[in-house]
TrEMBL record:
PANTHER family: BLL4334 PROTEIN (PTHR36439), DUF1697 DOMAIN-CONTAINING PROTEIN (PTHR36439:SF1). Pfam families: DUF1697. It comes from the Bacteria. This is DUF1697 domain-containing protein. InterPro entries: DUF1697 (IPR012545).
Length: 180
C-alpha cells in the first residue's frame, strides 16, 4: 500500500469551483482508501496498491485521476502526484529559513523539467532582499517577502499562462499539514 498526495492545479480559482466533499467522494469511487482532503485548494491524500493491472505505476494513477476529474467536474484537469515519502523529502530539503519572519516559504512543483529549468534560470536576476529561488529535485524552492507577495517578479513570471499548465505552487506550511 502506498500513500500518495494529489496536488490539483487551478481549482477554486478562475471559475473552476470544486468543493472538497465531492472531490473526496470521487477518489473513493476510484477505489482509493484513506482519502483525506486538506484545505480547499485541492490537496488529496489517499492510499492505493500500485503494481496492479489497473494501476501499474504512479503515471497510470495520475492519468486515471486526471481523466476522472476532467469528466466529473468538466475542466481540463492536471495534477502533481507524489508519494508521501517523496513529499516529506521535498519539504525537509527546503533550503531557506522556513519560519523567517515576514517571508512566505513556497515550493513550485512541475511536470516538465524544462519549464522548471527555464523558471530557475529566469530567477537568477531576482533581488535577494525580496525573493530567492533555488532548484530542488523536481521542484523549485521559493521564498518571498510578504510585503512583496504576488507583485514580485517571480510571482508574475510563474503565473504566466505558459507555465500554468505544468506548475503548481504550495506553501511549505501546507505541505507540513499534508504530512501531518
Amino acid at each position: 500500500m502506498t500513500r500518495y498526495v494529489a496536488l490539483l492545479r487551478g481549482i477554486n480559482v478562475n471559475g473552476i469551483t470544486i468543493t472538497m466533499a465531492p472531490l473526496a467522494d470521487l477518489f473513493r469511487e476510484l477505489g482509493y482508501t484513506g482519502v483525506k482532503t486538506v484545505l480547499a485548494s485541492g490537496n488529496v491524500l489517499f492510499d492505493t496498491d500500485t503494481g496492479t493491472d489497473t494501476e501499474p505505476d504512479a503515471a497510470a494513477i495520475k492519468s486515471r485521476i486526471e481523466a476522472a476529474l476532467s469528466e466529473t467536474f468538466g475542466y481540463r484537469a492536471w495534477i502533481v502526484l507524489r508519494d508521501v515519502e517523496t513529499l516529506a523529502r521535498i519539504a525537509r530539503d527546503y533550503p531557506f529559513e522556513a519560519d523567517r519572519d515576514g517571508w512566505h516559504p513556497y515550493v513550485v512543483f512541475g511536470s516538465d523539467d524544462a519549464v522548471l529549468a527555464e523558471l530557475a534560470a529566469a530567477a537568477d536576476g531576482l533581488d535577494p532582499a525580496d525573493e530567492r529561488v533555488s532548484a530542488g529535485d523536481g521542484v523549485l524552492y521559493w521564498e518571498v517577502r510578504r510585503a512583496v507577495g504576488i507583485t514580485s517578479p517571480f510571482s508574475k513570471l510563474s503565473g504566466k499562462t505558459r507555465y500554468r499548465s505544468s506548475t503548481t505552487t504550495r506553501n511549505l506550511r501546507t505541505l507540513h499539514r499534508l504530512l501531518g
